[in-house]
Amino acid sequence: MSIEPLVLGIVQGLTEFLPVSSSGHLALLQNIWGITDNNLTFDLLLHFSTMIATLCFFWRDIFSLACEWISGFLSDAGRQTQGWRFGWAVIVGTIATAFIGFPLKPVVERWMGEPLLIGVSLLMTSFLLFYASRLPRSSSELSLRSGLIIGIAQGFAVIPGISRSGSTIVTGLKRGLSPEEAFRFSFLLSLPAILGATILQLLDVSESGFSPANTLPDFWYGGVVAAFITGYMALVWLRRMVTLGRWRIFALYCLIPASVSIIFHFWR
Q1: Whether the Cβ atoms of residue 234 and residue 99 lie closer than 8 Å to each other
Q2: Residue 217 DSSP SS3
Q3: Which end of the chain has fewer CB atoms < 10 Å from its terminal CB, N or C?
Q4: Residue ranges of the alpha helices (H) in 58-132?
Q5: What is d(CA 245, CA 57) in angstroms, rounded to the nearest whole number?
């Protein structure tokens, strides 16, 4: 039994939600271990597992916001609710993510095999998080324009080494959202994007003539379970850290894998 899928699952669960780039960490480990076949399929399965963790963590918010959004089609009062604004902001943000993220797919696949580029991206994430620690606290309401801009940030975050949660939460803070609101919108916005990417990747694998199950590494299911458990735990911790504005610890941490990635590029 190989332990690499289990380790990758733990890394995915911890780094998917913490603002340190899960794709950057997975790409770095796969480069170090020399894993080259069907990486994107296993990566997407791990992302799907952490998406389930997100659904479990936010199920109350999802249910109440969905009810409010539906009520907006039935009455004027419903169109004044938070769920009405959230629902449309998620839709607009998801469209923006798709327009940017899908064309970048070939770039992402090449990027994952280049440790130097991964290291540079992680450095960019570190600088972004240092910047976040200097942002003042605000409490503006989420708007369609904010949803669009945060969706654009999420689209560019498909690049390995650029943290999706970090870039979307920081963009939300820059748009004047409170830390709690930026945290919640970041992860609700991630759900349709991750689900869509997972479905499209599975379709690509199926069209290639191979069964998706046959393209996965041994003990892949151990990685999927580990990603769910550690992902849920990371969400609990991150909400507290975002609320307290503790960004610098993540910024400093990102310098470590960035340095490892750059050194590995010149060492190998």
Answers
A1: no
A2: coil
A3: N
A4: 59-71, 82-101, 105-111, 115-132
A5: 21
